[in-house]
Amino acid sequence: MNSHPLLRKYLQSYREWGFRPPRIRLARKLTRCGSEYGGYFVDTSILPQEPIVYSAGIGLDISFDLSLIGQYGCTVHAFDPTPRVQSWLATQPLPPQFRFYPLGIADLDGSLDFFLPSRADFVSHSTVRSPRYSDRSISMPVIRLTTAMTCLRHNHIDVLKMDIEGGEYSVLKDLIQENIPVNQLCVEFHHRVSVAGVEKTREALSLLAENAFAVTHICPRFEVFSLIRTKIVQNNAKSIAD
User: Binning pLDDT at 50, 70 and 90, where does residue 237 land?
Assistant: First the structure.
């Protein structure tokens, strides 16, 4: 394999961050759940017996969701409003623990305009106007995390995964403002579709750090992050000691 293109991408990422990229703040033994493309790193040692997982933005890769279901007995509540995803899921053999809702996760209840992908063979839509997407848009239903949790009768989320094409920034602010009990976060940040660039992601990470979330994993391009609420680690260590 020619490693030069990958090396150039990594160097470009360092330059984007002004050679001051984010760092891992809490060392944990993590497990990759899902494929190389659609997987995320999770601290499975602190998952309870029946973990509650929310998966926002699933696209055409549910390997993360199926991995957690198959290995840890999770019930995964998956959210994605895009019509192509709904059509694709209808062709897939899905376990009963995979529960799908044709809604986007946002910081409001109602609907938002989503810009279509720039190519017909792409699936991702975004509420953020960007050259990566078409000028055409469609209105799709969205729901806040707090509303989803109320409807599903959940008082916490063990793992929240988000790949929502730029919508993660407003959802994370809403999560913090509403003090939603989330134990682990797996987030793909889309600073490349934002005019604010990496500073928007830096601000989001600072907000999470101020509210006791510690970074446990960063992908080489500084886009995909895993974070843990430090209180959960402390409580787990205390329960083991007791």
Answer: low
